[in-house]
Amino acid sequence: MVDFLKPTTVRQRVSKQVTRMMGRAYWPTAKPWGIRIFWLNRLRWERIESAELFEHSGLPYLKLKLNGRVWPAMMRTWGVPLYFLGVESFVKDVLENAPESNPLRRMFSEKLARPDA
Fold first, then answer.
1. Which single residue of 16, 59, 98, 116 could bond 83 by disulfide (Cβ 3.0 to 4.6 Å)?
2. Which helix (H) or strand (E) holds 104?
3. What is the helix (H) or strand (E) element at residue 62, kind and residue range?
């Protein structure tokens, strides 16, 4: 089970290193229209088909599967890092801005309601 809100030494160290190298523009942000990832990539709420948490090399990520036509096809799934400092504010913004029917909002709501699930 991925505990994406629990800070660890490794996550904090990686987060600080990435922030120093790339700045805060690297971190995802939730807006009323959708999510902005890596400053340039924008994802509207209605494009998210499913959301799931996973770990890669001990760091938490969010796997977003998109609906509709996507070119190239390999971009149909996005891996969003959740090891950055301030992940709590990102989750709060998703819960505030995403529509009730959005899979990402439902997933975060369920994880916060039942952290052990």
1. 59
2. helix 103-113
3. strand 59-66
Question: Helices (H) and strands (E) in the chain — how many of each?
Answer: 3, 6
Q: What is the number of other CB atoms lying within 10 angstroms of the CB of residue 24? A: 12
Does the residue 2 lie in any domain? no
Q: How far apart are CA 111 and CA 53, in angstroms?
A: 10
Q: Is 1 domain-assigned?
A: no
DSSP 35: E
4 domain residue, yes or no: no
Question: Which domain, by its residues, includes 18?
Answer: 9-113
pLDDT, one tens digit per residue, over 10-55 is 666 666 666 665 555 567 888 999 998 776 678 899 999 999 998 8
Structure tokens at 34: 């959708």
Straight-line distance from the first to the last Cα atom of the chain, in angstroms, rounded to the nearest whole number: 8
The length of the chain in residues reads: 117
